[in-house]
Amino acid sequence: MPKVSVEIPQELLDDLDEHVGDEGKFVNRSDAIRASIRKTLDMLDEIDERHGRVETDEAESH
């Protein structure tokens, strides 16, 4: 799996860390960041579909 390096503000990292670990939703930062990216991309795809910028599977079958 490729590695990516990003710079993020400390406040954002602190917020992320609240969701990581034994008491959090994610095992580690990488899992949390991957989940966030997936969710963001899904939301962007939904917005594009609503605005007719992406063909849906249904439209492609016609």
Automatic annotation (TrEMBL):
CDD domains: RHH_NikR_HicB-like. It holds the Pfam family RHH_1. InterPro entries: Arc_rbn_hlx_hlx, CopG, Ribbon_hlx_hlx. Residues 4-41 form the Ribbon-helix-helix protein CopG domain. It comes from the Archaea. One of its GO terms (biological process) is regulation of DNA-templated transcription. This is Transcriptional regulator, CopG/Arc/MetJ family. It comes from Halorubrum lacusprofundi (strain ATCC 49239 / DSM 5036 / JCM 8891 / ACAM 34). The lineage of its organism: Archaea, Methanobacteriati, Methanobacteriota, Stenosarchaea group, Halobacteria.
